[in-house]
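User: Hi! I have a protein structure encoded as tokens and I'd like to know what sequence might fold into it. I'm fairly new to this, so please keep things simple.
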């Protein structure tokens, strides 16, 4: 009903189909969403979205990267700096570690790390933790040289 692309998850045992591109209260995204990479245990899904209502204060006007917890309904924007400020450029998700705590994504943003002046899209690996009771994401970015290690160590 939102007239946009969405990300859906189908439980192959029960046949139940659930829309993953929703905010915490279950409201559908107000913009297109793409992707759908799962954590190994199937509890988290990585998606990219142009929607502005999936997280609070999403005013950057560009595509962001999110992780949706399919058990709790929590959805967290990963394409933000270590203080929670949204990326100032387009971001796209590519991979999710087995435990769902490390995200591989690219971004055109210049505000995710200090001194990003190369005027090119960069590759990031974000490790994040949900601070209990605060619903905050703390990003700790790896530099691009660690990308190969990510794929080798964390299927």
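Assistant: Happy to help. Inverse folding works backwards from shape to sequence: for each of the 155 positions I chose a residue that suits the local structure. Here it is:
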């Amino acid at each position: 009903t939102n007239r946009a692309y969405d990300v859906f998850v189908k439980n192959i045992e029960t046949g139940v189909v659930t829309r993953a591109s929703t905010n915490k209260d279950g409201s559908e995204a107000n913009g297109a969403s793409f992707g759908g990479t799962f954590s190994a245990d199937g509890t988290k899904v990585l998606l990219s979205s142009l929607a502005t209502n999936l997280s609070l204060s999403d005013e950057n006007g560009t595509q962001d990267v999110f992780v949706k917890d399919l058990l709790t309904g929590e959805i967290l924007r990963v394409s933000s700096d270590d203080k929670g400020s949204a990326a100032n450029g387009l971001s796209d998700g590519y991979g999710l570690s087995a435990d769902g705590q490390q995200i591989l994504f690219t971004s055109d943003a210049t505000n995710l790390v200090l001194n990003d002046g190369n005027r090119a899209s960069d590759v990031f690996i974000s490790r994040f933790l949900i601070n209990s009771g605060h619903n905050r994401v703390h990003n700790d970015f790896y530099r691009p040289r660690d990308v190969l290690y990510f794929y080798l160590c964390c299927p």
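A useful reference point when you look it over: Helices lie at 147-153. Feel free to ask if any position seems puzzling.
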